[in-house]
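request received
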Amino acid sequence: MIAQATPYTLEADHLSMGYPAAGQDPGFVRTGISFSAGRGEMVALIGPNGSGKSTLLKTLAGFMPPLGGNIRWLGKALASHHPRELARLISFVSTENLRIPNMRVADLVAYGRFPYTGWLGRLRDTDLDMVRQALTKTGLELFAHREVITLSDGERQRALIARALAQNTPFILLDEPTAFLDVSAKYEIFQLLRQLASGEGKTILLSTHDLGIALREADKFWMLTAAGCFQGAPEDAVLQGWLNHLFDNPHMGFDKKGGDFFFKTEQAGSAHLSGNGEGLEWTRRALTRLGYAVVTAPPQEEEPGPGSSTPTLPPALAGKSPQPTISVIVAGLPPDTLEWNLITAHGKEKFHSLHALLSHLREIPPHP
Amino acid sequence: MRSMHIPGEKREGLLFGLFSVTLALLFIADILSGSVLIPAGEVVKALLSPPEAAETVRTIVLGFRLPKAITALVAGCALSVAGLQMQTIFRNPLAGPYVLGISTGASLAVALFALGFAPVMALGFTTTGSWTLAVVAWAGAFAVMLLVLFVSSRVNDNMTVLILGMLFSSAAGAVVSILQYFSSESMLKAFIVWTMGSLGSITTDQLTVVVPAILAGLLLALAKMKDLNAFLLGETYARSLGVSVFRSRLWIFFSASLLAGTVTAFCGPIGFIGIAVPHLARVLFRTADHRRLLPAVLLLGGNAMLLSDLIAQLPGLQATLPINSVTALLGIPVVVWMIVRNRKFATL
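response:
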């Protein structure tokens, strides 16, 4: 079966970018970048600091001349688009922190109409409509007359996105829109961009360091790593091990199962973990942090009632090497009745918080 | 954003009205006052029906006071608009034609011209001479602006650019000193008087150069008003909004050179109007939109310079104070206050 090729609306083909070395300046050049994005796709540009994410965005937007290769927007070469035409095609949200006194949110958003207005920049009714719509879509209706400098970081980022929306372009490029934001603001921004991509068919390209959210929300990853470039579904990036290339540090890695990064610690021993519910996963994390190699067993048929179980290690693990040094059984339900039963060679103990359990484990020698 | 019901629109109208009235009053006061006391009636007579006025009154009012008041008005407008352009283009609240060394560039060019090419000095009082002087000053101003742009594109730090402006001013001062050392006594005196700044030394003949040049600069500034708004967001945003950054910036520099260069050539280097007035306009009019800031700056600039001129010739004083000292004493407190306030608001 031949799959219908997606009509890519943005293509970078064997692109070379950066600026060549000059005098003392070592320069920065990156070659062989081939990426593409389609209509309605939300693409996350991922890479360590200094990998060229910003440079790529600037090169794609035409702010920097490419050193080689081709960039095509809507099938037409970047260089053959007139600046004014590009302004109606691509809007850009930079990392710059705009702190301009006396500028109201509505003024900032109205900047988006710049490519559509005459030499005086007078806003017609259609322009004002676009400004209002952009404010509504970003949930900033009530902020229209607030000064931009009085906004929180998250609100300001939304205002900048509203400005890009008012520009009414099929493409929005954003350079680290979630940097410096608190967790809930990060999610709000991703959610907003998600809506714009799915709901309005805009192609959204954003660079970000927030891998967890990007993995969940992005349609596509473009990755710039020391090992090369990758493009594909975020899940492909995980399965093909590309996320490990984000680290120089050999002690760090990406846990494919947990969907999160981990820091490889010294092995303290192995732990057998059983029980059910949310408590299980968070106990696993806590024990992993302490350096235990955790083996999770399926929930037991019969929950061991308090005091009923004997202090022995589960026979299922008897033949395995290394012999688990501890066994933890999670019982009860969060948040109130949760408890942890620890079985070690020293005996059995019960804890009512992970903190108490971990404090105890730090005290006892892992290898008796 | 006329129909977005932005509060303060009424206030803005009132301010424009108020400052238009004060501008007219200051202009009249400037013509009425001077080292020789002339009754108001006589002044009006000289202005409205010159043949009826006494010969001396006519000479003083039409040949001296009116050109001076007009000069003060256009010089104030020109320096303030140039200051606004510089602050926006360099995104630096401390920028201004004087601080960035742009006036100094014009001065140096004028000094080289006046002191270095002695025979040409003879042209100084003819129309051709005025034009030559103006062109030299424009070239000097433009050259420095390009230099500052080059430096600021390499060093992304406001303070460094300002320090370089200061260093450049010192270097230009040194060159001027050397020139002075080799020049004749009479030329030296003329040059020193020029460096103190004077609105009164302009002849009616020279006004035919100054006024059109400044009008051209202001028209260019108006034509690039929208682009100035884009530059407020920085180069990246300006580019992404479709502004041809290089070309637009060149036009704005050209405009600022015309404005600051002309004033410097004929009135000497006048400081602190260019840096202080745009800040006053921002604070009073509470806007960042150049379509409103530019007219506001024009009005306030004219007001400020006319007021400075009035102070410079306070009644009771026989001599006129150097205008440069008056604008410095008026402008520096504004700049200091702005720096203190700026602790809170990072850029412009």
